[in-house]
């Protein structure tokens, strides 16, 4: 697979535009675009020099498309992943793998576990420089035995209300990144999930059946405790932090700042510059790193380091958290193919 790899980009919305920029930054090119919203597809194709396909199948089959990136709505991911795999093309699928645990299971069952490990799942926060450094430090034993992991993820503003009913819910749409990060740091599965959530930022989100403020506690098989905090609103920007505490110390991945300025005055005694505004400012570089790694693994025929099986496991934790919130109980875990048990 050459450096200037041609990619079929499925989707032309916000996340597809993020991936289009990352493809170019990683040295690839968008060869063909498909989106049922033809005006959006035309606009993205014009910006990238790509052609517009009439159908997703046409885009996948395009002769110049050596790989496929899926950035469509969550409810379309499974069928498109299956189509790309069956076409014999490397595929990167934006999170989540599917809009439900049942569909995630169906995807893995259809393509097979070996193929599933060659589907790159877009948990791009694994490739953020700070988060990756924290993970390396934990795995290298810098803090001794990991005892507590705290993951904080707060968006600057809630999503549009029309998005809420089709999002799958906060656990599946937002916290799913943090479930994956917890698994990546601990390198073990969890034995229980306990969730709390409320709708206190915008009561309309609650009326639409979702929450906007949540905490989840995961218990690792070795006794390590993971706490995940999510909020749909943060007055000071995009709050993305991880703290790993262990028997020999602690490491943190903090919020990057807009610049290195620190202000000293009576009103601002040592106040640093603001944190970054939203996900593209924070994670733009990690999207490009994700694409580069995807193309390298595809070229070498390797399993993807974060793959469809990781997508299944994140969906499993999201489903367990949803059930815990609904029932007000701790959910005990025995594997993604097993039924949940509560205590």
From TrEMBL:
The gene is iolG. Keywords: Oxidoreductase, Signal. Residues 1-20 form the signal peptide. Residues 133-251 form the GFO/IDH/MocA-like oxidoreductase domain. Belongs to the Gfo/Idh/MocA family. The keyword Transmembrane helix does not apply. InterPro entries: Gfo/Idh/MocA-like_OxRdtase_N (IPR000683), GFO_IDH_MocA-like_dom (IPR055170), Myo_inos_IolG (IPR030827), NAD(P)-bd_dom_sf (IPR036291). This is Inositol 2-dehydrogenase. Residues 7-116 form the Gfo/Idh/MocA-like oxidoreductase N-terminal domain. GO terms for molecular function: nucleotide binding; oxidoreductase activity. It comes from the Bacteria.
